[in-house]
Amino acid sequence: MAVRLADGSLPALDFLNSIDARAQQAFKALFSRQLDHGVLLSKDRFRMLDDKDPHVYEWKVHSPRALRLYCIHEGSTWYATHGGTKAGETRGVKREVKRARAIYAEGSEG
Questions:
Q1: What is the pTM of this model?
Q2: Buried (b) or exposed (e) across 67-92, using 16+ Cβ within 10 A?
Q3: In the predicted model, what is the mean pLDDT of residues 41-58?
């Protein structure tokens, strides 16, 4: 599910629509694999960024450049919040976790 903000925008969908077809296909393959198997075990393609509630994860694509789609997992539903190029390790990841939670909270209010 893509989180819809109060202004009607869908940051995750906007991100996916803005990337090239090759990267879109790579993300689609990750989503399909996760739906088929329930989990992605490869840390090269998927990882939890923060274990505080709500948990924030990232799907990772490396082709043609390092892209990330951030999401929140609640119950049995995955909520895609936003995406972008790979963030710098410590500070950049914390910024993206904070942004994912803010987007999720705003979308949950509406």
A1: 0.88
A2: bbbbbbeeeeebbbbbbbebbeeeee
A3: 85
